[in-house]
Amino acid sequence: MSHDHGHGGCGDHIDEHELSWNVLGYQDNLYKQIDRAHVVAFNANGQGRTVIKPWSERNDEASYLESDADDQLILRVPFTGSVKLRALLLKAGPGDKTPLKVSLFANENNIDFDDIADKAPTQEFDVPQGRDVGEYQVRAAKFVNISSITVFFPASQGAEETRVYYLGFLGQWSEKKEDPVITVYEAQANPADHEKIQGMMGGTQMPQP
To answer: What top-level branch of life does the organism fall under (predicted)?
Structure first.
């Protein structure tokens, strides 16, 4: 189908590029590569996967995740394969419920509130207040071969709770390579290793008639 942007006219005309953008968003959006069933939230009033939405629902403020006992919040997001991350997408707030910062930890699958303060984040961003989805470009070299991202919101901007509406990721995805160590071992097997086994209990095998 052709795309004609040179003509004015019908007020109800919907640009096909805009329609595609609203539904699909960035072509490297990793929504489908997130293992949503295993997204975990700590100190949250709700389930972590609530904020893992398709791009077309990024501005939906009816569903959100809010911190529970205080204004700290952790989200652990696993991927279904290996990811090279390009950017984080975040919609939070409103107002003083916006997180002060967002800290990203690459491949930290067991981190929680007991030890997160002692770990340096892979990268950290300040979060401005606003109603739009913010895009935070990561240092790509630090986010290669990622199987999970832990997202930490250490404090709100004044409220007793931190609220998140939408969390997304941009990047490249590839399938995990299964059992690479075994494959390498079989490919480099040394026949000399097998000569040490001469028979049962250290005895000598008798030749077959």
So the answer is: Eukaryota
